[in-house]
Amino acid sequence: QVHLVESGGGLVQAGGSLRLSCAASGSIFRGFTMGWYRQAPGNQRELVARITSTDITVYADSVKGRFTISRDNAKNTVYLQMNSLKPEDTGVYYCNTFPRRPEYWGQGTQVTVSS
User: Fold this and answer.
1) Sequence-ordered list of residues with C-beta below 8 angstroms from that of 97, at least 6 positions apart, any chain
2) What are phi and psi of 103, to 5 degrees?
3) Over 11-53, what HEC string results?
4) pLDDT in tens, 75-106
């Protein structure tokens, strides 16, 4: 059984920073491409960044240059460093494999950026 537990969200002013963490248990992580997704109110869940098992990263245009995804295979953890946050970054952030697997969704972590 697979569990993904996100943490690190919070309320921050525009221009601020947050670091999200996703701890993975079970059989996934090593060898898998992992992604961070977010869902704003009224919007579909979207991919914001992904990282392969060999640390190749890809970012959505909206976060490029501001967000950095990384992983620590020894800790089965993937991170999302978010800098220069904007109000439009507000949403619930989730991690999952890429491509996403519905059965892997966790509870997410709320990020709220005030203007």
Assistant:
1) 28, 32, 33, 34, 35, 104
2) -75, -5
3) EEECCCCEEEEEEEECCCCCCCCEEEEEECCCCCCEEEEEECC
4) 999 999 999 999 999 999 999 999 999 999 99
At 65 the three-state DSSP class reads coil
Nearest Cα residue to 51 out of 22, 91, 26? 22
Q: pLDDT band at 31, cuts 50/70/90?
A: confident
Phi/psi of residue 79, nearest 5 degrees: -120, 155
Pick the closest to residue 76 from 18, 23, 7, 21 (CA basis).
23
